[in-house]
Amino acid sequence: MGSRSELAVPEETVLEACGETELPEFGVVEQVWDTNPISADRIPDRAGAAVEELALENVPEGSEVAVGVGSRGIANLPLLVRGVIERLDDLGYEPFIFPAMGSHGGATAEGQREMLESLGITEERVGCEIQSSMEVVQVGETPDRGVPVVADANAAAADAILPVNRVKPHTDFDGTVESGLSKMMVIGMGKQHGAKIAHEWAVDWSFRNMIPEITSQLLDVLPIVGGVAIVEDQHDDTTHIEGIRPDGFLDREAELLETAYEIMPKIPFDTVDVLVLDRQGKDISGQGLDTNIIGRRPFAINESEPDLPDIKRIFVRGLTETTHGNAMGMGSADLVHEDIVTGLNAPDTLINAITASTIRGVRLPPAVETDRSGLVAALSTIGVIDPEDVRVIRAVDTMHLGRFYASQALVKESRERDDLRVIDEPEPIEFEDGQFAAPSLHNE
């Protein structure tokens, strides 16, 4: 990784190259969503009730139950996991947690334990042991292609396995099941070795075909008693918790995926000239920036991109703390702030990209020294613009889109729509030493 002077272009250089660029004014717009979140105090009991829906009737008391927990930024994750563990304890089982996160955490046992800790999952907080290991065992192979099927060794040795995960659209492919319980078992539970196998074969086979086939095989050969599925609403709040039994596993997950698609947050405009995002990270999306939100899927082989939205330029300002420097997906941006460069953990990022066979996703876009130079460079490369007509959004990230800064043209359009509400009228953009003076709108 180079120093700032080597990689971040000074603001003076950018502004001189772009010439006079009149900036739009920014107002604040809010999306009007009808949601029904589960209150935090009810989540442990709801998670525990989901456990009782699973196929535990043939698992005797005293059995060891492996609970798979991933690395995504799932809302209320410690409460959900604690509810699962407490109910397993109440039922007379001996639960332990294993990280089901593929290569995340630098593909090391300690790195994955630290990843769980950063998400609030510690032995003290959830009340059970965490067994973190990168060791896997082969439990079978696919019949037609002979693809090895592997699983976390600790989980495979347990009397029962129970993954806990959010069901949501995936960033790299479209299928009947995408990101959820099945993917956690195939890739997350396969650790770095299994994730690498899956991503290599997916180049020609496609995850849409691979994940259901390997999931069915894992259900047949491992003591998986089902999984606890979570669906989140537009505000990233828990709205649904359900225990899915092994019989009908894929069918029910497919139904929950349809629900997740319907209520996922979206950019509420089909065309945007410039999208500024305050941050990206693995806790926001597997690709750092959710490809379903930005309408770009430049790294997926043999997979089509979403039709909308159509965004001309994307400028990303920083990384989340929880991503620990993993800048996977930064190649989706057209410009990045120097904070991306200085916060980059190059080894973890590359390991993730190699495992996922998406090394183009970690190409470093041009880095700029300030917010002003990033916005000016983006606006100066989309053709002739009128500040009153240009369509610009500044949002927190691709997960938190409930409230965002919008240029005059988008504020004007928002006034005519029932699903949008103008909170603040447009005002000139203010900068402090070239950086946005206005704070992030992460208040959802």
Structure overview:
- The chain has 444 residues and is α/β, with parallel strands linked by helices.
- The chain has 2 domains: 4-23 and 266-401 and 428-436, no CATH class; 40-263, 3-Layer(aba) Sandwich (Rossmann fold), CATH 3.40.50.11440.
- Helix content is 32%, strand content 21%.
- It is built from 16 helices and 19 strands.
- It has helices spanning 4-7, 11-18, 43-52, 77-90, 109-118, 123-126, 153-157, 181-188, 191-205, 207-221, 249-263, 291-294, 338-342, 346-355, 371-379, 408-414, and strands spanning 8-9, 26-31, 64-69, 94-99, 129-130, 136-141, 148-152, 160-166, 227-232, 238-244, 271-277, 310-316, 335-337, 367-368, 392-395, 403-407, 420-427, 431-432, 435-436.
- The strands form 4 sheets. The protein has a 9-stranded mixed beta sheet with strand order 1-14-13-12-11-15-16-2-17. A 6-stranded mixed beta sheet has the order 5-4-3-8-9-10, with helices on both faces.
- Strand 15 (392-395) and strand 16 (403-407) form a beta hairpin.
- Helix 3 crosses helix 4 and helix 8 (181-188) packs across helix 10 (207-221).
- The two termini are 35 Å apart.
- The mean pLDDT is 91.
